[in-house]
Structure formats: C-alpha cells, structure tokens
Design brief:
Length: 172
C-alpha cells in the first residue's frame, strides 16, 4: 500500500507540532513548600510519625534561602529559644540524609563544632544521629539558623512541611 506524500507530510508536521500543542493544553507546574511549626514536644520518631499521619513530612532543608525562611518563621512565631526536629538523620558514620525527601544532605548549616557525635560508633551511650534546628545556644545567642546533631529520643518541637504544587495553564 502506497501512502500519498500529502499524508506523510501531514504526519510529519503533526509530530513536529505536538510539543507546542502540549504546552498549550497541559499545565505547567511548580512545587513550593509550606511549613508548620508543631509546638508540642516529641522525640524524632514520633515527630516523623505525626507529620506523616497528617499527610506531610518532617522538614528537609535544601538551601540557604529555605533555612532562612524557616529561621524567620521560628522567630516570627516567638519560638526563638526552642529547638525543632528536622528530617535529617545520620545513616552511617559520615553520611547524612533527609528522611522526608530520601535525599542526601548537600546543603548544611551546622553550628560551629557540630556534628560533634558524627564519628562516634553507634554503641556509645551518647549517640546523636538526628538533626535539629537550634534556638538560643548555651551563651544565650540566637542560633536558629544553625543545626545540631542530637539523640533521636530527645523530646522537642518539630517542623512539618507540605509540598504544594501550583499549576499554570496557558490562556492563549
């Protein structure tokens, strides 16, 4: 069966135009995060469980800008002296990961001297394998943009995050 040149050229034109039509009819989207400060105390495991029970995750901080937004949220809420759990955990002797996103921690903002329990074996009495954002340090200085490694069974406040997807449709 011979195809007429007109049909072939129409199919070729259709194949070339599909990406343009796809942009017109399918939405573009961007993902943003909304944060919730939870101000009852729980250990890291219960914090993770609570966030997931309400359809969220413990916060994963992936940039300086995000870290600054969280620090501002803490200050604006009047909790600058409190510590808050994140989803950060140490998964081996030197590797840290965000459980909330399942990604390795690449951006960090450790308090000077932290993580101080990083190279300790797991069988010691003081095992600090979970990451928290700290309020005022022992000198009374505000450090809410800094991180600390802490024993996961310590009870403190925590931050849940919700991924929001915003859709944008072409109106042309």
């Amino acid at each position: 069966m011979k195809m007429r040149p007109n049909i072939i050229s129409n199919l070729l034109l259709f194949a070339l135009m599909m990406p343009i039509f796809g942009q017109m009819f399918y939405p573009k989207h961007k993902s943003t995060k909304k944060y919730y400060l939870i101000t009852f105390k729980a250990n890291w495991f219960k914090s993770l469980s609570h966030c997931r029970s309400i359809g969220m995750n413990l916060v994963s901080i992936t940039s300086k800008e995000e870290n600054d937004r969280i620090a501002k949220l803490i200050v604006d809420a009047g909790h600058e002296t409190a510590n808050f759990w994140t989803s950060g955990v140490r998964i081996d002797e030197v590797l840290w990961e965000w459980v909330g996103s399942g990604k390795q921690i690449t951006f960090n903002n450790w308090t000077p001297g932290q993580p101080d329990n990083q190279n300790q074996p797991y069988n010691t009495n003081k095992v600090e394998t979970c990451v928290n954002v700290i309020g005022k340090n022992s000198y009374g200085d505000f450090q809410a943009q800094k991180w600390n490694d802490e024993n996961c069974f310590t009870e403190m406040y925590f931050i849940c995050e919700q991924d929001l997807i915003e859709y944008e449709y072409c109106t042309n």
